[in-house]
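Narrative of accomplishments. A recurring question from our advisory board has been how the design workflow behaves on a single, concrete structure rather than in aggregate. To address it, we present the structure tokens for one chain from the evaluation set, followed by the sequence designed for it. No filtering or post-editing was applied between the two.
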């Protein structure tokens, strides 16, 4: 579970400098080089840790309780600990596995609901695999095969409209062999004559499956792509 391991690894090195009731300093007075190094380590790792907390599955993490646990763990204050270290490690694993499973199920259900509604709309075609597409412009050129290298412009978005990738933002078309991309692209672009522009809605099992492909693309995500097939590259 990649996200869990990143979360735990960051927690091990993160040092909080916080104005909470946990006993951490409210103000920082850097008198020595070691003071500055201590503060710098906490600052750099704390920033990264905060970003991981934002993307952690499940309910929002209580930062005050997190800092209490960190202080007790760093000081080996076994008399104040509410769990043993083994219990804590096991709980982290089980909690985030449950949370990830619930998040995955929710994302997949939202995607399926969207696809069920979308397939009833005028102009939307659903293939046997579950891929959905709509023709914006129908070209007159040849259609590529899975072994062909193609040149395309595209914009990829989540179902809420968030853009996660776009060749237009990169300033140039993308080129790739059709057999080397996600299954929804391999199937869909073979339907397109050169010069066409289509919209594709790709179910998660034809995209990235249950894995989280990026910070934006959660596991189980249904994706939307607007694709313009510019050429078959010889």
């Amino acid at each position: 579970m990649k996200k869990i391991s990143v979360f735990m690894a960051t927690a091990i090195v993160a040092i909080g400098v916080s104005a909470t009731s946990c006993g951490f300093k409210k103000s920082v007075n850097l008198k020595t080089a070691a003071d500055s190094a201590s503060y710098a380590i906490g600052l750099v790792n704390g920033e990264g840790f905060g970003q991981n907390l934002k993307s952690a599955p499940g309910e929002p993490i209580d930062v005050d309780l997190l800092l209490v646990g960190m202080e007790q763990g760093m000081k080996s204050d076994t008399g104040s600990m509410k769990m043993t270290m083994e219990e804590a490690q096991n709980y982290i694993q089980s909690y985030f596995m449950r949370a990830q499973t619930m998040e995955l199920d929710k994302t997949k259900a939202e995607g399926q609901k969207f696809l069920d509604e979308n397939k009833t709309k005028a102009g939307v075609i659903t293939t046997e695999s579950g891929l959905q597409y709509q023709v914006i412009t129908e070209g007159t050129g040849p259609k590529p095969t899975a072994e062909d290298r193609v040149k395309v412009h595209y914009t990829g978005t989540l179902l809420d409209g968030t853009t996660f990738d776009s060749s237009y933002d990169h300033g140039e078309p993308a080129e790739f062999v059709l057999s080397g991309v996600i299954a929804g692209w391999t199937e869909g672009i073979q339907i397109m004559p050169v010069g066409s522009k289509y919209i594709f809605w790709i179910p998660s099992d034809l995209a990235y499956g249950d894995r989280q492909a990026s910070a934006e693309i959660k596991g189980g995500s249904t994706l939307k792509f607007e694709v313009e097939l510019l050429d078959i590259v010889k």
